[in-house]
């Protein structure tokens, strides 16, 4: 079975990204490219938590609304949110209105501040979980030993909505692994970006 499909431009891309032009753009320019910026890592962790039980396309289409609602995912600011902010966000039709997930973002912002103090940066912590063996992009698992270990450590530190499947999705998106399928036009670009990336 092929893990790629031809797009409108005739180029082969991962089969999952063909829903909309926004999805193709995300696939071509974001998914799998390595990220060392703490705010972007925090944003993606939060959005992966919101995605739980939903499609990523749903979250991607609401991403700008999420950014507006959560102060651009500046965890220094989100850590100051209180109950009034939770109630405000529960009225915001532009995001996913789920109390548990909203409260998890605020909780995780506070945990992020603790992690920066303890580890120097979020990136320094998360990149420790990069698998030793590179992914072939052939058989993509839902979770791995590394994502299980990451999930376990985050839960121990008080983070929420950080299960091993969610953490593997984060690892894929933030470039800790390159799970673009063989034959996908973006796979080689991600390999190049990962090779040039200075690990935190």
Automatic annotation (TrEMBL):
It is an enzyme of class 3 (hydrolase). Gene3D superfamilies: Hypothetical protein, domain 2. Keywords: Glycosidase, Hydrolase. InterPro entries: Adenine_glyco, DNA-3mA_glycosylase, DNA_glycosylase, Tag. One of its GO terms (molecular function) is DNA-3-methyladenine glycosylase activity. Pfam families: Adenine_glyco (PF03352). Its EC number is 3.2.2.20. This is DNA-3-methyladenine glycosylase I.
